[in-house]
Amino acid sequence: MTGWFSPFLFFLARCTENELRRQVEWLKTENEMLRRRVPRQRIFLKREERERLLKLGTAIGPGAYKLITIVHPRTYQRWLRKKNLGEKPKKMGRPRTLQSTREIIIRLARETCWGYGRILGELRKLRIGNVSKATIKNILQEEGIKPGPKRRSGTWNEFLQAHVETLGQVDFFSKMIWTPTGLRQAFVLALISRWRTGR
Predict the structure, then answer these.
(1) 52-72 per-position pLDDT tens digit
(2) What are phi and psi of 25, to 5 degrees?
(3) Which structural domain, as residue segments, surrounds residue 185?
């Protein structure tokens, strides 16, 4: 009985292996087609996704280098090497803005009603670097503060009335005049200002 049963088992195993190979080829081809349609060239994986790939790749062995397409095989190899050495993966992206800087931005916005452009200028005066307009805008939006407060629109007359004590006008002109020595060019500088008189 064992004489004809062993080849039969071998035949079944061979069929299963061929079927699995076809499925792998199918999934690999499908994955390549999908990757061609992904707009971004580089895909950033989360830590859990990376760990899952490493776990599955370790079970496959060296054959994983031929299968992996989501990252370069050298990148996968580097992940594997770091995992074997016990190194923790570094976080991607820019570091989070310091809490103290966030508090200064929020305080400036609430106490002065300045927009994000003016706040950026004040931060630079305080020598607080590594903060962009977009960062300030995002922080203010997270706190429910409008990044660019709406300025009150008014007429030109209202503006003049509000600044009448500090406004002035300067005019400069020249004119040819006759003098005892002959025709000369005279220069005139006129300054008009409303001075506040104390009563």
Answers:
(1) 888 888 887 877 777 777 778
(2) -60, -40
(3) 159-193
